[in-house]
Amino acid sequence: MTDNTAFPKEVSLPSQAERSSRAQAVQQRERGMYRLSTLGEMTGGIVHDFRNLLAIIESGLRLAETKADHPESVRDYIAAAREGVNRGVELTSQLLTFANYKELDLRARDLNELINSFKPILKYGTGTKVRIRLVLGSDVPNCGVDPSLFAAALLNLVLNARDSMPSGGEISVLTERFVQTDIAISEPPPGTYACLRVKDQGCGMDPDLLQKVLDPFFTTKGENGTGMGLAQVHATMQLVGGYLRIASERGSGTTVDLLFPSI
Q1: Are 56 and 124 in contact (CB under 8 A)?
Q2: Between vectors from CA 234 to CA 233 and to CA 239, what angle results, nearest 5°?
Q3: 35-71 confidence digits (pLDDT tens)
Q4: What does pTM read for this prediction?
Q5: Which residues form the signal peptide (predicted)?
Q6: Within 10 Å of residue 32's Cβ, how many Cβ atoms?
Q7: How far is CA 88 from the centre of its chain?
């Protein structure tokens, strides 16, 4: 008598190597989706940054025309305009980096050195009514920063601060060591950070506006704004693993902190 009992076939479980390969494929897809989403946000922001840089280049050339009889001054203005052109080239490279899914140029860098190299752009970009005050700390830790992204973020913050003070005033750009010890909602995890702070004496914002300022395309500047400035900065901080904090009060100005994890 023949036994026709059907035995279940053996099921071969995936090997460790196969499981690892599948996990890597999932991670790559997730990374690709994240970068694609970020690319959409960053593209609008980079267009906004280009407009800022073109305004600075135009300002430098216009000032050079008015100082044609003072060669030393003209050279300074032209140098500022050339620096704006160089920053535009860096932004173009950054956009290509995102489009080609290349890694960011994240290396341990000194925030103070980056800010000092960017002083001509800040000086001529804010105009004659606004003063830039640099207060650079002596114990700021090195942190992972992409120079072109950092420059674009700083320029956005400074020009936003300038626009909040149509009658002029002072913008403070500060750096310091920041140590987070507590675990709290909406705060960075405990650790040591390099903090960049941009503080203005402008009109400030009510709490309801403050909750919306990081939303893409939200602007308080009417037709003169794109709503991509702070959204661009926020996306930048997410890409480098940092954090953005903003505080504002109507009539008292606005303070924005960028926290970069120390290396």
Answers
A1: yes
A2: 95
A3: 545 555 555 556 666 667 777 777 777 777 777 777 7
A4: 0.63
A5: none
A6: 11
A7: 15
